[in-house]
Amino acid sequence: MTWQVDVLTLFPEMFPGFLGYSLAGRALEDQRWSLKTHALREFGLGRHKAVDDTPFGGGAGMVIRADILDTALEATKPEDDRPIIYLSPKGRLLQQADVVRYASGQGAYFICGRYEGVDERIFQKHTIEEVSIGDYVLSGGEPAALILMDACVRLLPGVMGSDQSGVEESFSSGLLEYPHYTKPAQWDDYAVPEILLSGNHGAIASWRKEQAENATRQRRPDLWESYQGNHK
Ligand code: 6GU
């Protein structure tokens, strides 16, 4: 079974977007996953196919109507157990563990919002995971959906090839990655760390671990705390 993505959006033209140019685009061509968009506009009301309205209680911006979103969901939502994910800055912060969980399932159904958001009552009727990709605000959920897809697709069988780069990486070890170097060994005034040229694989592994730990301690005290907790 191919890993299947559906996206409900006001901007279907944004997909596959930048994914078409990378590993995920190649994997899409190779049918290692599938992508289907659904235009929310088609479910809009009246001559202008309106999908939103002004917020009750006043305030800026527009809110996507729950009834319209519901009609769209009922018409297009998955028949299988794929999660319905609403991308929003007030969602639970996406972690690599979530990406691994999504990638190991059948796929996902993404709802991309715009404006100030969606009428909250949609979450009462439907089981929807509200997910954020970081503590900053985007103008819409589409780039976030693309990013989440990219993170999942690279983990699908056969997508990254036979190398180890998908397993031995940051966030599965709990540490940031150690630094990488390639030829030339001497570039202008800058030399590659001597140990990497030593051929001593044990010493190299220790050095890399130390580098990863130092980087994590300095840059990400939050990750460092939980790493230490997990390695007691
Ligand atoms: Cl998932 N959506 C939007 N609109 N902004 C975000 C986000 C998502 N994650 C961080 N900022």
TrEMBL record:
Residues 4-225 form the tRNA methyltransferase TRMD/TRM10-type domain. Keywords: Cytoplasm, Methyltransferase, S-adenosyl-L-methionine, Transferase, tRNA processing. InterPro entries: Alpha/beta_knot_MTases (IPR029028), tRNA_m1G_MeTrfase_C_sf (IPR023148), tRNA_m1G_MeTrfase_TrmD (IPR002649), tRNA_m1G_MTases_N (IPR029026), tRNA_MeTrfase_TRMD/TRM10 (IPR016009). S-adenosyl-L-methionine binds at residues 113, 133-138. GO terms for molecular function: tRNA (guanine(37)-N1)-methyltransferase activity. SUPFAM superfamilies: alpha/beta knot. The keyword Methyltransferase applies. GO terms for biological process: tRNA N1-guanine methylation. Residues 210-232 are annotated as: Disordered. One of its GO terms (cellular component) is cytosol. Gene3D superfamilies: 3.40.1280.10, tRNA(m1g37)methyltransferase, domain 2. It catalyses: guanosine(37) in tRNA + S-adenosyl-L-methionine = N(1)-methylguanosine(37) in tRNA + S-adenosyl-L-homocysteine + H(+). It is found in: Cytoplasm. The keyword Cytoplasm applies. Its EC number is 2.1.1.228. Belongs to the RNA methyltransferase TrmD family. Specifically methylates guanosine-37 in various tRNAs. Homodimer. This is tRNA (guanine-N(1)-)-methyltransferase. It comes from Commensalibacter communis. The lineage of its organism: Bacteria, Pseudomonadati, Pseudomonadota, Alphaproteobacteria, Acetobacterales.
